[in-house]
Amino acid sequence: MRISKRIASAAPLATTAMHGRVDQMKLMGQEVIDFSIAISHFAAPESVRDAVSEMALRTVLPYTAVGGAHGLRVRLAEKLSTENSVDARPSEIIVTNGAKQALYEAMYAMTDPGDSVIVFRPYWPAYLATSRLLGLEVVLVDLPEVLTGAVLDALPPARLLILNNPHNPTGKVFTRDELDALESWLARTGCAAIVDESYEKLLYEKSHHSLSSSARWRELGIVTLFSASQSYAMMGWRCGFAVGPADVVSAMETLQGPITAAPSALTQVACEAAFFSGEPHRLVSDYRARCALVMDMLSPVPWMRVRSPESGPYIWVDVTALGCDTVAFAESLLTEKHVAIMPGDALGMPGFIRMGFISDDIATLRKGLAAIIAFGPQMKQNNR
User: Fold this and answer.
1) Which of 257, 275, 293 is the last residue of a domain?
2) Which residues form the Aminotransferase class I/classII large domain (predicted)?
3) Which of 214, 245, 275 is the last residue of a domain?
């Protein structure tokens, strides 16, 4: 069977591919500690489970409008106003099967093949994969310590810029000043923006600000993505939404209609319950303690350079001192020690590794970290 050129040249996301390999090893009876992805050991909020259980017992689960039930979009507009200082109408919101669908639809609606899109490195791999599927020219830019007007003015012309705030994998949270600089640059250049705020609740230090809280977000062409997956421990529920200018959201609905139509009625009920379940204080407190444990174990390691993240479920580690290929490091670690990590190559930065620290129990976390720490010198010796 002939496969189209546009998909034949594509490859599965490295992040999901590694997790798939771990699942296969487990199915074969092998014990594996999986730091390659972030799957919370917390359950979804009780209010979510209760709401979905009640809905599932109804005789009829209805279709809704493609962009989501009107009542849900009204409620999400309330969330945006209260929590993100974003003034949006229900018609400017679309409910999706997770943030990935919202990302694909927004990029499809906002670009044409051959357009340039700016992506900061290291990146979430879906940004690159989606760009390539859509025939876009990706401009990779190293994530700066501080996003300033001077940094932005050095960027080449582009149709679209993608910002992850809070940032996966580094855990950086952009300040209000940085977002103000970005807003001014967008106004000067006419470049549009997609801002992925999937980690908005997983904050350890700084406050989170939305770029779309700007009064000019519509005219600047800013689309913001939200997800329940990480902030509410709902990875498998596939529950997200986007807010953007009405014409962009309408175009996204046109695309979503023939692909999935609206998310399921159960997903939409879960979406409302999640985003109105309150701040995930216990979850964040647990993650903060785990993060401190990871930092305590990794900071003294001479071949690791690590900075405590301001948010998120990952630790981003510079291991260039090992002098080895980080893909080979990850492969050998998985094969020999049954510990999975994500090589930075998959996120655009060879010489780094990403480790999720929110799965399993503390004893397993310690065991996996100890295995990595002990394995590094072995890899370094093998490379001599």
Assistant:
1) 275
2) 31-365
3) 275
Secondary-structure percent of the chain, ordered helix, strand, coil, rounded to 5: 45, 15, 40
Q: Are residues 162 and 305 in the same domain?
A: no
> Based on the domain organization, do 68 and 132 belong to the same domain?
yes
Q: Quick one: 147 and 166 in the same domain?
A: yes
Q: What is the pTM of this model?
A: 0.94
Token digits of residue 348: 């655009």
Q: Does residue 30 sit in the same domain as residue 140?
A: no
CATH number at residue 262: 3.40.640.10
b/e code 147-156 from CB counts within 10 Å (16+ = b): beeebbeeee
* pLDDT per residue as tens, the chain (384 positions): 888 877 877 776 666 677 778 888 888 888 999 999 999 999 999 999 999 999 988 878 889 999 999 999 999 999 999 999 999 999 999 999 999 999 999 999 999 999 999 999 999 999 999 999 999 999 999 999 999 999 999 999 999 999 999 999 999 999 999 999 999 999 999 999 999 999 999 999 889 999 999 999 999 999 999 999 999 999 999 999 999 999 999 999 999 999 999 999 999 999 999 999 999 999 999 999 999 999 999 999 999 999 999 999 999 999 999 988 999 999 999 999 999 999 999 999 999 999 999 999 999 999 999 999 999 888 766 665
